[in-house]
Amino acid sequence: MPPKDKTTPGHIHALLDRSTAAWLILVIGLVLTVGLWHYSDAQFSGRAKDRFAHRVEAAKSLLRSRMQAHAQVLRGGAALFAASDTVSRAEWRAYVDALALEHSLPGIQGTGFAVMVPATKRDEHLAAVRAEGFPDYAIHPAGERDPYTSIIYLEPFADRNLRAFGYDMYAEPVRREAMERARDTGLPALSGRVTLVQEYGSEIQPGFLIYLPIYAGGAVPSTVEERRAALVGFVYSPFRAQDIMHSIFADSLREADIALFDGTPSAEALLFASAVDTRGARFVVEHPLQIGGRTWVARFTSTSAFERDNASAEAGLILFGGSTLSLMLFALLNTNASHRRRMQAAANRLAQSRDEFRTLVENVPGVVFRCQVTAPWAVIHISRNIEALTGATPEEFTARRVSFGDFIVAEDFASIQAAIDEALRQGTSYEVEYRMSNRNGETHWVSERGHVFLSRTGQPLWLDGVIIDVTERKQAEEAIRNLAFIDTLTHLPNRRFLLDRLRQGLANSRRHGRHGALLFIDLDHFKSVNDTYGHEAGDRLLWEVAQRLRQSVREGDTVARLGGDEFVVMLEELGDQRTEALEKGKAIAEKILAALNAPFELDGVHHQNTPSIGVACFSGEDERAEDLLRRADEAMYRAKAAGRNRLVAIDGTEA
Questions:
Q1: Is beta strand 611-618 parallel, antiparallel or unpaired with respect to 646-649?
Q2: Angle formed by the axes of helices 241-248 and 9-83, nearest 10°
């Protein structure tokens, strides 16, 4: 029987099948590679977009914070007027100089006061200001109108600001609209885009102003009609838009160009633009901002530096690696002789890709992780940055010796799990902020963004995400909140905080039928301390007074600084009867009187200072916080009139 021919049709079909299989594997591999490349590119684009959105939010927060800080400066000015019957030019200059705005809030053009001048008192007003040493003073622009609003104080009173002296801002419609809005609301009001009267020469910039009304008596009247009738003038700040915005966004312009418009974006509404380049940026967003009762529109465009920093080579690596693997599989099926060599080369390339990917992950800001979906969130993979955050190494996490739950503050467990559960229900990513404590006992605020991966049946498999330390941002937000309610010198509650506590105390007293007392404390001859030892010594005295007041009252009592050398102590739950509350209040006041009579050490010198204290009882019956404060103030003035260094109750009983 003749031997079989090895080139039978069966062998030929087998060879064709092997070739067909190789081509099929190549096509499938390339299709999957391209699909994964598109997916990876979309993921990185999304991350870059999220990072840009984060930069934008940070810039918006910075702008809002700065404008709120400038409004707070004006509130301080308003408090100065409220605390005095009159504020002289020297006192206004001293107040503004003490703020050191050129260092704490750079970019401001000035801080001033414009007084309301009825037409009938125009001549009297001109004579009074000229008598101060300004013989050429006049209200401008010229013309007959009623009323006038003349700028009489503006610090620093030099250079460009001299042009604004005597300027009637009511004569200009845009400024007048903002001033009337501030007058009617009692709140800071932002003007529209204007050209400041300080502008001259070739470097003219757009500008805007913030106004805060000053009313007779200091307090804001309750109705619009009363506010209009009580209006005395305005504390205000003018801004050159380019100067203030460059100072605010100096650290933000590398990654985002910023254009700011007063209202609808247009060339006429442009306040500030960090760049004139109109190239096609990858990311462009616009956000309306409500500031001082007016809407600004901020347009943020990504810079080439941001786009370069957020570009990623991973998608290209995936395309290259996937294509290479597909070709290797194709070559494997067609070339048995080079099987081991080609497979080894493929393994080496895959190892290199793995190392490059790991290096990329380790250099991502924050902590990249994969963990279980439920608490205590045992870790599957985690980047090395976790060691700086917790003190535990990645190996300790992956070996299950520690987990996220060991470092997360227990009170935050529920909010984290709720965010993950909500993301599971919605099929979306989640973002949550919480606290982590490291092995040294230090607590950090972190922001976590992640996504739950599901099986084909919809069961959660693992959680991928990134954790970023946001402690500094949290501290900055807390500092901004404190500026509104805490006196920066003594760290005591300020007038705004005190009024809120007084309202609460009156409500509690009314609800429970218990009596309390309010102590109004004014330091005798405090001005002589500043004149003799200097303002720094005066500040140290005020700080020491605050400490002694804290030590002299009960835990839970409120100690506040109204401003200058005036302090207030609110004592609650003193008794069921007014006489009992009065006696206990006077006893505590006597303790304070003794504490403040003890010598103070100022620059190595023992200084004796005394207080005058007014005591007013309260029960919360149909009384406002402002009225209670006024009664205690009256009692304090009686103590001063009686010779100082004593306390007087509101009914005239003297200790």
A1: parallel
A2: 120
* CB contact set of 651 (below 8 Å; sequence gap of 6+): none
Q: What is the 3-state secondary structure (H, E, C) of 542-572?
A: HHHHHHHHHHHCCCCCEEEEEECCEEEEEEE
Cβ 148 vs Cβ 173: under 8 Å = no
The reported pTM is 0.47
Cα-based distances in Å from 495 to 85, 112, 569:
18, 22, 12
- The dihedral over CA atoms of 95, 99, 101, 102, expressed in degrees to the nearest 10, equals 100
pLDDT value of position 615: 92
* Cα distances (Å, whole numbers) of residue 37 to 31, 122, 323, 455: 10, 77, 10, 22
Q: Which long-range contacts (CB under 8 A, 24 or more apart) does 401-405 make?
A: 403/371, 403/376, 403/377, 403/378, 403/379, 404/371, 404/376, 404/377, 404/379, 405/375, 405/376, 405/377
Residue at token pair 């001293």: 94
Whether the predicted pLDDT of 1 surpasses 70: no
For residue 653, what pLDDT band results from cuts at 50, 70 and 90? very low
Pairwise CA distance, residues 587 & 58, whole Å: 51
In 199-358, beta strands by DSSP E: 207-215, 231-240, 256-262, 270-273, 284-291, 294-302
Q: Which residues contact 621 (CB under 8 A, 6 or more apart)?
A: 510
Report helix, strand or coil for 23: helix
Q: Which residues pair with 606 in a beta bridge?
A: 601
- Output the average pLDDT for the chain: 84
| Res 602: pLDDT | 78
Task: Write 535-541 long-range contacts (CB < 8 A, 24+).
Answer: 535/98, 537/602, 537/603, 539/489, 540/602, 541/600, 541/602, 541/607, 541/609
Q: DSSP letter at 493?
A: B
Please list the residues that pair with 261 across neighbouring strands.
270, 297
Chain-centroid distance, C-alpha 171: 35
At 345-360, the pLDDT tens digits run 665 776 666 565 566 5
Q: CA end-to-end span of the chain, whole Å?
A: 139
Query: 201: alpha, beta or left, given left = phi > 0 and alpha = psi -120 to 50?
Result: left
Distance separating alpha carbons of residues 382 and 384, to the nearest angstrom: 7
Please give the C-alpha separations between residue 109 and each of 101, 163, 241, 313, 538, in angstroms, as whole numbers.
10, 12, 10, 47, 29
- What is the per-residue DSSP string for 136-203? T---BS-S--SSEEEEEEEES-SGGGGGGTTBBGGGSHHHHHHHHHHHHHSS-EE--SB--TT--SS-
Name the residue among 496, 420, 32 with its Cα closest to residue 220: 496
Q: What is the 3-state secondary structure (H, E, C) of 322-352?
A: HHHHHHHHHHHHHCHHHHHHHHHHHHHHHHH
Q: How far apart are CA 188 and CA 208, in angstroms?
A: 13
